[in-house]
Design a protein that fits this description.
The complex is a heterodimer of chains A (250) and B (638). Chain A is of the alpha+beta class. Chain A has helices spanning 33-46, 118-127, 147-157, 164-168, 175-186, 195-208, 219-223, 231-249, and strands at 3-9, 18-24, 68-70, 73-74, 96-101, 109-111, 114-115. In chain A, the strands form two sheets. Chain A has a five-stranded mixed beta sheet with strand order 2-1-5-3-4. Chain B is built from 17 helices and 21 strands. Chain B has 638 residues and is an alpha/beta fold. Chain B has helices spanning 15-22, 28-31, 43-55, 93-103, 110-130, 162-179, 245-252, 317-321, 331-343, 360-366, 368-386, 441-461, 474-491, 499-514, 520-540, 552-576, 600-603, and strands at 35-39, 58-62, 80-81, 155-156, 183-186, 189-197, 200-208, 214-218, 221-224, 257-258, 263-269, 292-296, 314-315, 355-358, 395-404, 407-408, 421-423, 497-498, 541-542, 605-610, 619-624. The longest helix of chain B is centred in the C-terminal third of the chain and has 25 residues, at 552-576. Classes of the chains: A alpha+beta (250), B alpha/beta (638). At the A-B interface, helix 1, helix 2 and helix 3 of A face helix 3, helix 5, helix 6, helix 11 and helix 12 of B.
Chain lengths: 250, 638
């Protein structure tokens, strides 16, 4: 395959950025999108130019490190797929591809296609845990959890924290991420003790990090490589309202 | 080199309890006076950092990823073993212990493995309490599945992403400690060296991968939880960032490296499709619960469409050769059998390097939806990568490098030969012998991090030799300067070859001569070729940009440099271990029907390598393994 690649270049957060165009020939249809970028980087290096910085690690769709907006879609046009699992057979020979970083105010740019998503870590630190001392846990089967409840918690827990939800939202809201993280724990019996505090604290941390408000556009769920459902946003809104009300009444 | 394992006295089942009682304690008020460095934030590192922080120690945790949640433990799919016996099928601590010792082909330390089996049950309890959404039965209790190398169902799982869920559990505990100020997290930092004073580990040197700053950090103890070295083969199931640098640098500073030749080749990976490939993708071995492995009986049938080959013309070779374990034979045996079939010309797919994994029987027995429920995400992943539908035609699989059992030598307390430097998880050599059973890596990482190190580190801290030093001291400065010099050296030569091309070439040498089957002349040849590659690397390497910014080329160059040196060590170890055992198969030592033949008389030991300086041959020491509770037997799965 032969491709024309329009790629965002930016030397650092304070520098101005722009698109750079590169031609790449001899791309295998069986290669992944990131392997195609590896090939381009080898070519740039051989031409005495600086390779393009992009984030990647596991390359099997689970670590959530890769973060490319391809032709306007976070993780590209294929549903339920991260950039690293997107294969070139999904594109046409001769096509022009536009590659940008995940853009959001709360994800400051580091270099080229690399952004800083530590805001997600701060949301988790605010309450995305169950307080349990190592070694103090009761037997794993002490509390039976109905399978449907456990399955719903698992659906939420499948979030890989990549940030595609934020990048796809025109408000750059992190509601889907926060809803998945809080929802996973709020749905389990173990998570009930801290449920209200968790919900309020995680939402505050999300707001403090500079993410926008949720308007229920639903782009986030469509862009999510793990198909996290919008239902979790509704649940977070309910949990948040209940926690607020309880706080007011107490 | 002092290789005293410090295994406690007493009967096997009481050793750990006795040891915990006799270990010194650090009083709660004194814990805050200690600082501990944890390198790596996977299951071992994340669990250790969280637990030590919770105990009151001050912890600095480092990872090269942009978030501790992304460490490669996340990619484990299948599950985690625990001797809970929830299935009432005859499991027990002793059985998990025995299966693990046997699975490791009698090349691991009894006391460590028994402790692992003992704490396995606590791990499940801990993870459930953290909210890990393990699979459940309709009654609400935890579900189990079977895994290779065991005849009981003891594997707990969370769909096909057990690793991610367990890591998120550890990460949530870690996040709680970060918020509490007990742990300071340093992301996008790579450890490049270790500092010791009077023989005790006192700190590390890191490079900030964003700014390029090279900084010293000091503490009372250092924990290396930096994973395995599978990427020495270039193509492996590891994440692209996984590397040997931390453990190799510790080796260069005096930590013994044990059994580097023990590498695990995973039987169910997606075959290589071409030269562009940057990594290989594993599909959980749990697939072998319902999938049947076969190749055509006749090499002439290999190019036919698989469903056109009639039942009688197929060779279900695992079921034929190992009737009692069948498709659940351990990883090393399954991998080697696939290689044999392909070497005979009966492989399928591009290049003839693949075998079929066929679900048609399970689908007709249970229905497609049941299979989708169990393995849906794996079938999806397979289709994404190959463009083929695994429900309609058998998948093609081939073995790939997956896990490394070798690692830094540690005693029963998980301390390396450098006092104060502890090694946890895949980075150490301790529990899996010459072959790891499926679903045991997660168990070991969490066992080391949650339940072992919190006890054993106290014993070290409370004894002589502990005590932090100033980061401005002369010992620190010397190491710091050498790291800076090394970084500058990598950036300065303007040769013609990229670090990736060197890494690829190294991988080809390793796979060819130190892969699934090894022999004396091949290993000798490999050592020569690696030495030539190193010479070329020092002359012809091309790294663009500078050391002062985010520079992936520079990172890869540094890691590749260490992989080259390490690759030579691995081959040397494989050459000296003149027997076959577990994942180490020496062609000179096999039975008539191609099974591995151990040599217990001469090799019932761990081989521990001591660095002697650049260009010098390292010394090989041994720790004898004594088996008091199990009988050394020929490992049979027939």
């Amino acid at each position: 395959m032969k491709l024309t690649l329009k790629i965002w270049r930016q030397a650092g957060p304070e520098k101005s950025g722009s698109f750079e165009t590169h031609e790449l020939d001899g791309v295998s249809e069986d290669s992944s999108f990131l392997e195609m970028l590896d090939q381009l980087n080898e070519q740039l290096l051989a031409d005495g130019k600086e390779p393009i910085a992009f984030d990647h690690d596991c390359r099997e769709g689970i670590c959530g490190t890769c973060s490319l907006t391809i032709n306007g879609h976070p993780h590209g046009p294929e549903n339920s797929t991260t950039s690293c699992q997107l294969h070139m057979r999904k594109f046409k020979d001769g096509e022009t591809l536009t590659i940008e970083p995940f853009r959001a105010r709360a994800f400051p740019l580091v270099r080229d296609l690399v952004v800083d998503r530590s805001a997600f870590d701060r949301i988790t630190q605010a309450g995305g845990y169950i307080t349990v001392r190592t070694g103090s846990a009761p037997d794993g089967n002490a509390i039976p959890i109905p399978k449907p409840d456990s399955d719903s918690a698992m659906d939420a827990a499948a979030c890989i924290g990549c940030g595609a939800c934020v990048a796809s939202c025109k408000n750059a809201s992190a509601m889907l991420f926060t809803a998945a993280k809080a929802g996973h724990l709020n749905m389990l019996p173990q998570g009930q003790a801290e449920k209200d505090k968790r919900t309020l604290d995680m939402v505050s941390a999300m707001d403090d990090a500079g993410f926008g408000n949720c308007r229920n556009y639903g782009e986030c769920s469509a862009a999510c490589p793990k198909d996290i459902s919008l239902d979790f946003i509704a649940k977070l809104n309910r949990d948040h309202a209940k926690a607020n009300l309880k706080k007011l009444l107490s | 080199m002092n290789l005293d394992s410090k295994t406690p006295d007493g009967p096997l089942a009481e050793k750990w309890d006795n040891h915990r009682f006799s270990s010194k304690l650090v009083n709660p008020a004194n814990k805050r006076k200690y600082r501990i460095i944890v390198v790596g934030s996977g299951l071992a590192g994340g669990a250790a950092a969280a637990t030590l922080g919770e105990l009151g120690y001050n912890v600095d945790c480092f990872c090269y990823q942009d978030s501790p949640r992304r460490a490669h433990s996340i990619a484990a799919q299948g599950g985690i073993n625990a001797a809970k016996n929830y299935q009432n099928d005859g499991d027990s601590i002793h059985r998990l212990f025995y299966d693990t010792i046997k699975g490791g082909d009698f090349r691991s330390r009894e006391a460590n493995v028994h402790r692992l089996a003992q704490v396995s049950a606590n791990i499940i309890d801990q993870c459930v309490a953290q909210g890990v959404p393990f699979a459940r039965e309709y009654g609400g209790l935890l579900a189990n599945r079977s895994f290779g190398g065991a005849q009981v169902s003891r594997t707990f799982y969370a769909r096909g992403q057990t690793g991610q869920q367990l890591l998120l559990g550890a990460y949530s505990a870690l996040s709680r400690q970060i918020a509490a100020g007990q742990v300071t997290m340093h992301t996008r930092h790579e450890m490049l060296d270790i500092v010791s004073v009077d023989g005790h580990a006192k700190g590390i040197i890191t490079r900030n991968l964003v700014t390029g700053e090279v900084d010293p950090w000091t503490a009372d103890a250092v924990l290396l939880c930096t994973g395995g070295y599978g990427n020495a083969y270039y193509l492996s199931t590891n994440a692209t960032g996984c590397n040997v640098t931390a453990t190799y640098r510790a080796y260069m500073r005096g930590a013994g490296f044990a059994n580097p030749c023990y590498t695990q080749i995973h039987p169910t990976c997606i075959p290589v499709s071409g030269d562009h490939q940057s990594k290989l993708t594993l599909m959980s071995e749990s697939l072998r619960n319902d999938g049947r492995v076969w190749v055509p009986k006749d090499a002439a049938d290999c190019s036919k469409y698989p469903t056109d080959i009639p039942e009688g013309e197929r060779d279900y070779y695992l079921e034929r050769k190992y009737p009692s374990f069948g498709n659940l034979a351990p990883r090393d045996i399954s991998s080697r059998s696939a290689k044999e079939a392909c070497d005979e010309g009966r492989g399928v797919g591009p290049g003839g390097r693949g075998v079929y994994l066929d679900f048609s029987d399970a689908i007709s027995r249970l229905g497609e939806s049941a299979i989708r429920e169990r393995y849906g995400n794996l079938f999806q992943m397979y289709e994404r990568i190959t463009g083929e539908n695994g429900y309609k035609r058998p998948m093609r699989i081939y073995p790939a490098i997956h896990y490394t059992m070798g690692g830094l030598w540690v005693d029963y307390n998980l301390m390396s030969t450098i006092p104060g430097c502890f090694v946890l998880g895949e980075a150490n050599f301790s529990d899996h012998g010459a072959n790891r059973l499926g679903a045991s890596a997660l168990m070991q990482g969490l066992s080391d991090g949650y339940f072992v190190i919190p006890y054993t580190i106290g014993n070290y801290l409370a004894s002589a030799g502990a005590g932090a030093i100033s980061p401005d001291g002369p010992e620190v400065k010397e190491v710091l300067d050498s790291v800076k010099q090394r970084v500058d050296q990598l950036v300065s030569p303007k040769g013609k070859r990229s670090s990736r091309s060197y890494h690829k070439e190294l991988g080809q040498i390793m796979w060819e001569y130190a892969g699934m089957a090894r022999n004396e002349s091949g290993l000798k040849k490999a050592i020569g070729e690696i030495q030539e590659l190193r010479d070329d690397f020092s002359k012809n390497l091309l790294v663009s940009g500078s050391g002062k910014t985010l520079n992936a080329e520079l990172e890869r160059a540094g890691r590749t440099r260490d992989f080259i040196d390490f690759g030579e060590l691995l081959c040397r170890d494989a050459l000296e271990r003149n027997e076959s055992c577990g994942g180490h198969f020496r062609e000179e030592h096999q039975t008539e029907d191609g099974e591995a033949m151990r040599d217990d008389e001469n090799f019932a030991h761990a081989a521990v390598w001591e660095y002697k300086g650049e260009g010098k041959t390292p010394d090989r020491h041994t720790e004898d393994l004594s088996f008091e509770n199990v009988e050394l037997a020929v490992r049979s799965y027939k």
